[in-house]
Amino acid sequence: MKKSVFVKLTWTWVDPAIAVGIGLWVLPRTWTLLKASFNVLLEGVPDDVPLADVRAALLALPDVDAIHDLHVWAITSGRTSLTVHVVTDAAPAAWPVLLARVRALLEQQFDIGHSTVQIESVPCVGADAVHGETEKVPAVEHRH
Fold it and tell me: Average pLDDT over the chain, rounded to whole?
């Protein structure tokens, strides 16, 4: 009889130890999921999109003089959206070609399939002050 009591008392720590182990195993995964969920809910830039690289790639395109109002966010995981204003001195007749180049670059290099691109001959008022990305062309009043 004493042997069975001894065995019973010896193994009482196993259940709490396993529960603590499972809790410690779940905790980092929960944090990762919560962080990703908050990023989507707050419309933050997805971790897999290098915003500086997107900006540099857009500015490197021919006929792109400046960009401003660049925003990248994820509606759901795996579905990235982008909006940007592109400033160019190209003739308005050439804008459809520039738009196609911008969208192709975003799709091919950054896997951004949903983009809203506004092409302008001069940047919006306040683009310099707010975003600091338009250095070549003076701003004029522009309403959305």
Answer: 80
Return the SS3 of 104.
Answer: helix
Q: In terms of pTM, does the model score above 0.70?
A: no
pLDDT above 80 for 76: no
Question: Residue 74 CA to chain centroid, in angstroms?
Answer: 6
Nearest CA to 111 out of 70, 74, 68 is that of 74
Distance between CA atoms of residues 106 and 87, nearest Å: 17
Q: How confident is the model at residue 5 (pLDDT cuts 50, 70, 90)?
A: low
Where does the chain show beta strands of DSSP type E?
66-76, 79-87, 114-120
Report how far apart the first and last C-alpha atoms of the chain are (Å, whole number).
Answer: 85
Q: How far apart are CA 58 and CA 50, in angstroms?
A: 13
The model's confidence at residue 74, banded by pLDDT at 50, 70 and 90, is: confident
Backbone angles phi, psi at 85, to 5 degrees: -105, 125
Q: Spell out the SS3 assignment of 17-49.
A: HHHHHHHHHHHHHHHHHHHHHHHHHCCCCCCCC
